[in-house]
Amino acid sequence: MSLPTAHRALLCYPSRMTIPDPIPLRRSLLRWFDRARRPMPWREDPEPYKVWVSEIMLQQTQVATVTPYFERFMARFPTVFVLAAADLQAVLEIWQGLGYYSRARNLHKAAVWVVKERDGVLPRLSSEWQALPAIGPYAAGAIASISFGEVVPAVDGNVVRVFARLLGIRKDSTLPAVRRALTAEVTRCIAPRRAGDFNQAVMELGALVCKPRNPVCEGCPLQRWCEAHAKGLTATLPVRPTRKPVPHMDVAACVIRRGPRILIARRRPDQMLGGLWEFPGGKQEPGETLEQTAVREIDEEIGIHIRVRRQLGAIRHAFSHFKMTLHVFECTPVKGRARAVTVDAVKWVSIPELRTYPFPAADQKIITWLETDR
After folding, report:
1. How many helices (H) and strands (E) does the chain have?
2. Confidence (pLDDT) at 374
3. Given a cut of 90, is residue 17 above it in pLDDT?
4. Which of 280, 290, 288 minimizes the C-alpha distance to 333?
5. Residue 335 CB neighbours (<10 A)
6. Cβ-count burial of 341 within 10 angstroms (0-12 exposed, 13-18 middle, 19+ buried)?
7. Is 78 helix (H, G, I), strand (E, B) or coil?
8. Residue 278 pLDDT > 90
9. How far apart are CA 155 and CA 148, in angstroms?
10. Which residues pair with 346 in a beta bridge?
């Protein structure tokens, strides 16, 4: 009997390539999951809208962080109809502090699409979920299997790690051929009558037991099938490419005062952190002082000339692909009328009003400074 194409891709790798009999493995995994599964609000009621929202929130974010945001989100937007009818600013406000704001924008965009194109009826099949904005194979598989029992894989980083160790894969796990092979093996192992539980069980195992560092092999229900454990490779698998150094940038942010009011600007939808409000400013260019950066950026973005009065402080913040030091300056407008030149909108607001607008995490620290410095 010939092997599936995805499995043949692993023949060049010194690994086991496949689980000989997946039935005992899946039984052991599901027994463990029934005992060890963590309580989560979307698990107690796996209604597709709730599972969808939770899966989007859980991308690159831990369960403990997501849970309170999920509960507030569901209280504010309990159905896809309510979410679709909401203003994006209201969605971003609820999302404030969770990060990766493109997830919120895409979730809102997809809700609008579902109401408009499907009369609010959520898809059932994984292939249908992938027609929605920003829904990839993982999220589609998770929702379709958990909410509807479709026998499809949901392969995220946890699942890749578990199966790369099980099979002893010694090649870069980010390579397309390796990813396809791992996905094919996950698909082969899925419990047909408990597809959603199986997918969640593998993810739970990766989060609680088969962790990136210091995996708890003694408590693993899959230990006897694991090539990495048998050959002492758990510390080195899965193989991933060497990370490049994270770049750093210095950014000037301006607290521009006009009497009791402060000027804020909204980022364009096509920008990083699009739709959020900020204290305007921008990246320092070569040869500039930070004060010169502040003056230039405000002229380009807002169309006014400012005078820098003093530096309020500096905030260090890390994003997924770069690090930033935000240098905050208190400024006074000298000439011109504030207008949206390269930003989406501008407003003069009082300090108490600042909390009614969605801001990125770094800018929220500036608000705290202003509230305590009045």
Report:
1. 16, 7
2. 58
3. no
4. 280
5. 9
6. middle
7. coil
8. yes
9. 17
10. 265
37-57 mean pLDDT:
96
What CA–CA distance (Å, rounded) separates 105 from 269?
A: 9
Q: Position of tokens 């607001």?
A: 349
Alpha helices in the chain (DSSP H): 5-8, 22-36, 41-44, 48-58, 63-76, 80-85, 88-95, 102-118, 126-129, 137-148, 157-167, 176-189, 195-208, 227-230, 290-302, 361-372
Is residue 207 a contact partner of residue 63, using CB atoms and an 8 Å limit? Answer: yes
Helix (H, G, I), strand (E, B) or coil at 244: coil
Instruction: Output the pTM of the full model.
Output: 0.85
Catalytic residue among 44, 55, 93, 204: 55
pLDDT of 12 higher than 50: no
Which residues lie closer than 8 Å to 183 by C-beta, 6 or more apart? Answer: 6, 153, 155
Q: What share of the chain is helix, strand, coil (3-state, %, to 5)?
A: 45, 15, 40
55 is catalytic: yes
C-beta of residue 92 within 8 angstroms of C-beta of residue 358 = yes
